[in-house]
Every structure is written in C-alpha cells, then in structure tokens.
Amino acid sequence: MTTPDFPPPVHRQRPSRRQVLTILAGSAAIPLGVAALRMWGPQPVFHYWYGEALGAEASMQLWHSNAGHAKRTLARMVSEVLRLEAVFSLYRPDSEISRLNRDGALADASRDMTNVLERARALADVSGGAFDPSVQPLWTLYENHFRHTADPEGPPPGPLAAARRVVDYRKIDLTGRKVRLASPRMGVTLNGIAQGYVTDVVADLLRNEGFDHVVVELGETRVLGPHPDGRPWRVGLKDSQGGTGRSIDLVDQSSATSGGYGTVFDPAGKNHHIFDPATGLSANSLAEVVVIAPRAMDADALATAIFVAGEDRAPALLALAPAARAMLTRKDGTVVNI
C-alpha cells in the first residue's frame, strides 16, 4: 500500500487539463545518517508550495534543513513561474503567445519563447508533423463547435478543411527575436511542450540553489535526486477516472503523460484536445502515452508526438532524447513498454 509523499492540496481552483501524475511513497523511513545528523543540527524537513501554472494544478516540494532558505527559494520559484506564464499562457490575453495569436507577429520575443519555438519546430520536423505547435485553429474550431451544438461527430467537413489549411508549423517564421505567422488565421499553442520547459527551468534553478531532493510538478513532473530516505520517488499514474493504479520510480528524471481524456468535447471522448494535424481529427490510435526522460520538456513533447504518431513510430521518436522510454496503453487496455 502506498501513501502520498505530501498531503493533497486543500483547495483546487481549476481541473488540470494534462496533469495526470501524483507523487506516492512507501513507508517514510528516515536513513540512519539523517537521523544521526538531526541530533546535532537543524532537522531537514519538506517544504511545500501548491498552486496553479499554465492551467494545471501545480506543486513543488523541497527537502532542506534551513526553513528560511527553503521558503525564500519557493517564493522566487513562484515568481519565475509567473514570469513564464506571461510568456506561454493561453489563459492570459497579455501573454506573449496570446499577442502572437492576436497580432500575427512578435517584434521582440523573449528568449524563452524563441527557445521553445525552436525546439517545437525541430520536433515537428523529425516527427513528420505529428507534433505541430500550429494546431491552435483546430482547438478553436472544436471548442466553438461543441459550445454551440450537441452534434457528437464534430465539426463539419468544410470548416474542418479550412482550419487544416492554416495548420503548418513551417509557416511560423522565426528570425532572431522576431516571430511571424504567415496567415492571419494561424494560431500557436505550446501546451504540448511549454509545461515541460517551465518545469525544467524551475528544477534547474533549484539544483543551482543546492537542493538535492526535489519534486517539481508544473503540468509535468521532474524530480531531483532520490527521495531523502534513499529510495526512488514513486510516481502514481492516474487513470481516466482519476484513480491511481500503476506507478513508476524516478531518480533525476522527468515524466509526462498524454491522453485524450484530459479534455474531451463529447461524452464518448471521441473528440478531444490532442489533434492529428494530418487529418484535423482527434488522435485515437492509443489510449495513453507516458514518457520518462531526463528532461521534462523532452518528455512532454515526445508524449504528445507519440500519442499522435502511434505505436509503430514510438521507437524512432524516443531515440531523439537520451535515455527516454515510454509506456503505451493501447485502446484495448494492454500496455507496451518501449
């Protein structure tokens, strides 16, 4: 039986669209070395932050003996998350990505925006377009369709074809700090990669601050070091109903999950938020993809790309990130480890 490494948040403002991981633990035994140190100095304890980032429930936990340092560091990390939300959040009308979608161009994009766009376009190239950051018009089409009609089949062929015509990552022009969309109807979403990027930025800053036992969950999960008792961090994988069954062990690794159940438009779940750019339809060859990789941005983007591209292309896509592996759940419920 497992118990949480930290207690659940008391209040949650918005259901997560993509976060399907929760940290679990076995018995919280304390190593003898740590117990001995506690006799002579400040006691290391967990310090927590709970909140929301990029539309997902978020949390950070740090193990440290200096409570003041831990609290000050958490406050700086929250400020960093807010700074990055001002770049990537589609919920904020004043964010860089919202302004890009509204105006069709950014004259002086931040380094964060250009870094993520460059990585997104590179992955789009090698995935043959399975991962495409320009699918936002499809999201807009589906969201509008299901807001105004109960038709479970999804958008009609005409509007679907029109939306597909402006989905093409190759029409995102990135020159230095300037970003331009080739068509006024284009739109960009970085939800399949930006959460991983934000997770990596915060985790890297925490490592530089000297924190060796860390869990960062900012839409995707990254852990630093092992659990303080010496074992791996245990990450429980939630199913589509929110229950926790399977788990994976992580040490200095990241995990990300893609599944159509994250945001569904119809009761049957046929139409959901992960689109296949080649068809304009929701990708449905797999039920779920979990990717484990050293860095959260790679895990995030690869989970989306594999969910769209399918099982046959998973090995080639995983080869793009060092030490990446995946757990694929087929529609019949069987699981394949790659």
From TrEMBL:
Select a single GO molecular function from the record's annotations and give it: transferase activity
Say if the entry is tagged with keyword Translocase: no
- Entry keyword Cell wall biogenesis/degradation: no
List the EC numbers from the record: 2.7.1.180
- Which residues are involved in binding Mg(2+)? 192, 300, 304
Cofactor(s) demanded:
Mg(2+); Mn(2+)
Q: Which keywords belong to this entry?
A: FAD, Flavoprotein, Magnesium, Membrane, Metal-binding, Transferase, Transmembrane, Transmembrane helix
Q: What class of enzyme is it?
A: transferase
Copy out the cofactor comment: Magnesium. Can also use manganese.
- Give TM segment ranges: 20-40
Catalytic reaction annotation: L-threonyl-[protein] + FAD = FMN-L-threonyl-[protein] + AMP + H(+)
InterPro entries named in the record: ApbE (IPR024932), ApbE-like_sf (IPR003374)
Per the record, the similarity remark reads: Belongs to the ApbE family.
The entry's protein name is FAD:protein FMN transferase
What is the protein's species of origin? Pontivivens nitratireducens
Taxonomic lineage per UniProt? Answer: Bacteria, Pseudomonadati, Pseudomonadota, Alphaproteobacteria, Rhodobacterales
